[in-house]
Design a protein that fits this description.
Layout (H helix, E strand, L loop, with lengths): L1 E5 L2 H18 L9 H11 L5 E9 L2 E10 L5 E4 L11 E2 L4 H13 L6 E7 L4 H9 L6 E10 L2 E3 L4 H6 L3 H17 L3 E5 L5 H17 L10 H17 L2 E8 L2 E11 L2 E9 L8 H15 L5 E3 L6 H5 L6 E9 L4 H26 L10
Parallel strand pairs: 4-6, 12-13
Antiparallel strand pairs: 1-2, 2-3, 3-4, 3-5, 6-14, 7-14, 8-13, 9-10, 10-11, 11-12
């Protein structure tokens, strides 16, 4: 297998965008975070500032069979996938029939032409190309070494083919409350409207999402994800790009003409991903978050034919009330022997422990961690 290194993003986009799209579409392992739309928008907003673009193109015969879309730190010589820090799942892209060969070629490159670099993938997707093949491949590449660390829980709910089947799988109280909460809204509001953002509403819906997310977190004296204008610009662009590509599912709940709840979701293949939400805190007594989550799951089943509703990183208790079970990301570090993989692994373990400790502290203060749940 031939490997080519590409370092100019604009030239890469012009020459390889269509092949990236084709491979992502062909791969059941590729999530919404591996789409061209996500990665291109991420680089537009997060590239530069000490990050240097580096893509590996994997070719077999006359065709491109894989890509690793990466950025490098010129000081540490560390390579990380595009999306680091914002994407819940990181991975490379490979045609299903060439996954193992692409991973083998990646390790060969790290042990050879890329020997000055160390690959650090903090959120390797469960069941993804790297998480599936990287550890197995290391035994066949003599000078490459791979370390893996079990990462954060990513609760995901399996979905049957009908909404009724799904609700029967839930606890009795949750099942009853789904109907009660929605009837209660109909009782107290004249107009209850559920919608999914489209090209005509995307700008207004995105702004409502930002505002509601911030109101929810500011009520807890926390900054929220969109405190800075740069974050809002990034996700506004991201939402537009994902909508154009058919991957965005931005759900809204409007009560008497005011948008009061939003769910920022993505869909790719047979999975819907719940990324972030925003809810009017003054309407908490109506459980509008639960109402809209139920609608989003129903949409995933009935419209998208989804087989999974992935709540992504974090063990907040509400996720388990919807039938989610834990799977875990993997932190993967790879490079030639002597490049510092063991030390990087020790540092990564300590960092993960600290991050999880901080999250548990926040959950203890504000509620939300663990599998014991109640309907709210």
């Amino acid at each position: 297998m031939d490997i080519r290194t590409l370092t100019d993003f604009d030239h890469f986009a012009a020459a390889h965008q269509s092949d990236v799209r084709r491979l992502v579409a062909s791969s059941p392992r590729a999530s919404a975070f591996q789409t061209w739309e996500w990665n291109a928008a991420w680089w537009r907003h997060r590239g530069g500032r000490g990050r240097r673009f580096l893509a590996l193109q994997f070719t077999e015969g006359a065709g491109n069979v894989g890509y690793a879309l990466l950025w490098r730190d010129p000081l540490t010589k560390e390579l990380q996938p595009l999306g680091e820090g914002d994407a819940d799942y990181l991975d490379i892209i490979a045609h299903p029939e060439h996954e193992q060969a692409v991973v083998h070629a990646l390790l060969t490159w790290l042990a050879g032409d890329g020997r000055s670099f160390r690959l650090d993938v903090k959120q390797a997707r469960p069941g993804g190309v790297l998480a599936t093949h990287l550890s197995a491949a290391q035994t066949s590449v003599g000078d490459a070494t791979v370390a893996s660390i079990t990462g954060e829980a990513c609760p995901s709910a399996s979905l049957p083919s009908t909404w009724d089947e799904y609700t029967r799988s839930l606890g009795k109280k949750r099942r009853a409350n789904i109907g009660y909460y929605e009837r209660n809204l109909q009782k107290h509001f004249k107009a209850v409207v559920f919608a999914v953002a489209n090209t005509e509403t995307i700008a207004e819906d995105t702004e409502a999402f930002f505002a509601l997310h911030q109101r929810r977190w500011n009520a807890r004296w926390l900054p929220g994800a969109f405190a800075h204008a740069s974050a809002r610009r990034f996700h506004y662009d991201m939402a537009q790009s994902l909508l154009a590509g058919g991957f965005l599912r931005l759900h809204t709940l409007t009560l008497d003409g005011r948008t009061e709840a939003t769910l920022y979701c993505f869909h790719k293949g047979d999975t819907t991903y719940y990324y972030l939400g925003g809810f009017e805190p003054e309407l908490a007594r109506f459980s509008i978050g639960s109402v809209l989550t139920a609608r989003a799951i129903r949409y995933a089943i009935e419209v998208d034919g989804a087989k999974a509703f992935d709540f992504l990183r974090g063990n907040e208790s509400y996720k388990y009330a919807w039938g989610a079970v834990d799977v875990h990301n993997t932190h993967l570090i790879a490079g030639r022997r002597g490049i510092g993989v063991p030390m990087a692994t020790l540092t990564a373990r300590a960092t993960l422990a600290m991050e999880l400790g901080l999250k548990q502290g926040m959950h203890a203060r504000f509620g939300g961690a663990g599998k014991k749940t109640k309907d709210t």
